[in-house]
């Protein structure tokens, strides 16, 4: 007998969750998320003392959020980061 389908718990805010009326651009997401708290949570699992220096933590996390919010594949996200000034500004701010 086949098991019933169970959904994974939400880990990120999805595009459908962003019904906040003030959001007009990516700059406005700063009002919704506390970036310093996110950085504190993720810093313990991200840092490594060996090898090449890693990319800034929040830059990668913001890029992953954009990929999740806009349902982008890795290739599409890379293209957006390469071409889109607004996307780059969001990831590096």
Plain-language structure description:
The chain is mostly helical and 93 residues long. The chain has a domain at 56-93. Helix content is 46%, strand content 0%. It contains 4 helices and no strands. Helix 2 (57-69) crosses helix 4. The longest helix has 13 residues, at 57-69. The radius of gyration is 16 Å and the shape is globular. The chain starts with 34 loop residues before the first helix and ends with a helix. The mean pLDDT is 74.
Write the layout of secondary structure elements.
Layout: H1 35-46, H2 57-69, H3 74-83, H4 85-92
Helix pairs in contact: 2-4
Notable features of this structure?
single chain; about 90 residues; mainly alpha
Our estimate of the beta-strand percent is under 5%
Inertia-based shape: globular
Mean pLDDT: 74
Secondary structure: helix percent: 40-55%
Q: Work out the number of β strands.
A: 0
> Strand pairing plus helix content: what structural class?
mainly alpha
**Uncertain regions spanning at least 5 consecutive residues:** none
Q: Report the order of strands and helices.
A: HHHH
Number of helices: 4
Q: Indicate the radius of gyration in whole angstroms.
A: 16 Å
In short:
The chain is mostly helical. It has a domain at 56-93.
């Amino acid at each position: 007998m086949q098991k019933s389908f169970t959904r994974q718990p939400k880990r990120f805010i999805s595009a459908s969750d962003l019904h906040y009326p003030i959001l007009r651009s990516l700059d406005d997401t700063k009002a919704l998320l506390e970036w310093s708290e996110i950085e504190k949570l993720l810093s313990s699992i991200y840092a490594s003392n060996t090898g090449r220096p890693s990319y800034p933590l929040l830059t990668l996390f913001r890029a992953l959020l954009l990929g999740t919010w806009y349902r982008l594949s890795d290739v599409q996200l890379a293209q957006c980061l390469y071409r889109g000034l607004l996307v780059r500004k969001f990831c590096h701010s």
